[in-house]
Specification:
Layout lengths: L9 H16 L4 H23 L3 H8 L7 H7 L2 E6 L11 E8 L2 E8 L5 H6 L7 H16 L4 E7 L6 H5 L2 H13 L5 E10 H5 L6 E5 L3 E3 L3 H8 L6 H8 L3 H6 L5 E3 L10 H19 L4 H13 L9 H7 L5 H8 L6
Parallel strand pairs: 3-4, 4-5, 5-6, 5-7, 6-8
Antiparallel strand pairs: 1-2, 2-3
């Protein structure tokens, strides 16, 4: 698969072009072979160094890469015998969210995920992965069905946010997302949620409450997209890069803040470089976690899930003096002394 390089990968693109030029020349000499090996090592080393130190805004670009695998790709690469189910029995079928029964090795599961699409036609039909209320109602109805038949639920999150149109608001967008979060918090079956690309705002939370919440290494999960944040705080989407840095929504930040439980490593250069390897990583993770969750009783499962989300956002209060005792923070007395050498204001 031909790789489309992002703007910050120009030096990698140049190395790749040199490699392809040498390969197309079909020169079998020892000198050419050694040169080719050297260039490939360089490309691998520089790719590793770059992707180990991505900025938050670069992570967003990787998460949005046009070749990044979507839910529909994982359905064919991770699962067997996927059978899609449709409709919310109220309004219609939202193609931005796909649901269906599948097999994960010997386990029967219910899979639910956002779907963006690749071509402009597909993206338009899928509303660019932005679901309407009927999409979230469909997801919830299928989750209840899964609980009825003791099937674990697997959710793939990949959306910039819920659909913001007037029709969606009229049909209860905020209400249905809140209901989904409430119902998922007490659903009597194991739930695993994985952020595979973008995890934006309530659109992600609508299928994001689970016993395990994981994120791919170069995905992001945030209360708002960087462009949306920049529009609110700086009144212009031009400051999206600054907003991305301020939001601290990369996998490293989220693991540190205990917002996610696990980070699933991506292939060298991102998931878009190797769909099969990324799928194998996800499959292994799902099998491992489902085996652990299946050992728990339903009561323990639901209580642990509730406790997990209650812990998010907890903060600690203490006095300046207590903080100064453990950290290099000036006390009020130090500040006064610095303002006036004689201790007088």
């Amino acid at each position: 698969m031909t790789t489309e390089y992002l703007a910050f990968e120009n030096h990698l693109a140049e190395l790749d072009a040199q490699i392809q030029q040498i390969e197309s020349a079909q020169d079998d000499s020892a000198e050419t072979a050694e040169n080719l090996r050297s260039l490939r090592r360089q490309l691998a080393d520089q790719t590793h160094q770059l992707y180990e130190n991505l900025t938050p805004w670069q992570s967003v670009q990787v998460a949005r890469h046009k070749d990044r695998p979507h839910t529909i790709d994982y359905l064919s690469l991770v699962f067997d015998e996927f059978v899609e189910v449709f409709g919310d029995k109220h309004f219609g079928d939202d193609r931005a969210i796909r649901c269906g029964f599948a097999k994960l090795d010997d386990l029967k599961v219910m899979v639910i995920g956002h779907q963006k699409g690749r071509t402009f036609k597909d993206r338009s039909e899928n509303f660019f992965g932005c679901a309407h209320p009927e999409g979230y109602r469909k997801a919830m109805a299928k989750m209840r069905m899964a609980a009825k038949y003791n099937l674990p639920v697997i959710c793939f999150i990949d959306t910039p946010g819920a659909y913001p149109g007037i029709g969606a608001e009229e049909r209860g967008q905020a209400q249905v997302i809140a209901e989904n979060m409430f119902e998922m918090s007490r659903l009597e079956t194991p739930i695993i949620c994985i952020v595979i690309g973008e995890g934006g705002s309530g659109g992600a939370l609508g299928i994001g409450v689970g016993d395990r919440v994981a994120i791919l290494q170069h995905a992001y999960y945030s209360v708002i997209s960087p462009e949306g944040c920049a529009g609110i705080l700086w009144k212009s989407g031009e400051h999206a890069e600054k907003a991305a840095t301020a939001l601290k929504f990369t996998s490293k930040h989220l693991l540190q803040f205990n917002v996610v439980d696990d980070v699933i490593e991506e292939p060298l250069g991102g998931a878009h470089r190797d769909h099969h390897k990324m799928s194998l990583q996800i499959k292994n993770y799902l099998l491992k976690e489902l085996r652990q969750l299946n050992r728990k009783s339903i009561d323990e499962l639901v209580q642990t899930r509730y406790d997990r989300f209650r812990r998010i956002g907890v903060f600690e209060e203490r006095s300046i003096e207590e903080t100064a005792a453990t950290e290099d923070v000036p006390t009020e007395a130090d500040t006064t002394q610095a303002a006036s050498p004689n201790g007088q204001v």
